[in-house]
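Quick start: read one record
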Amino acid sequence: MYRYMKEIYRAHENGLPVVGPTYLARAIGVSKSTAHHMLKNMERMGFGRYIERKGFVLNERGMEEARKIMRRHRLLESFLATIFSFPPEKACMEADKIDAYAGDELIEMIEEKYNYECCPCGNEIPK
């Protein structure tokens, strides 16, 4: 679910409030049926609504969760770029590998120490 929430949030940032399984399948690298199944599961988990033949729309709870997930990702991405001098693309790829596993305490420490406002790619870090 983590990767899906990040991609849905990115799509929302880019003006796409309804995200379909085809879009997510391409972005994440899964089959369309796998993406469809996950969107239906996310609806059951209470993160939004799946509209047949259109896509998924985050509700308030889903948007808050997606915002937290993207905040965690972008803080880690910024930290990796600062500490290891990774270029933006590399920092993003490495953050993708670990953001779901980083503890809240680590994220809070990064936030307090560095106070990043945007990630190395230039995207705003959600509050």
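The chain has a mean pLDDT of 95.
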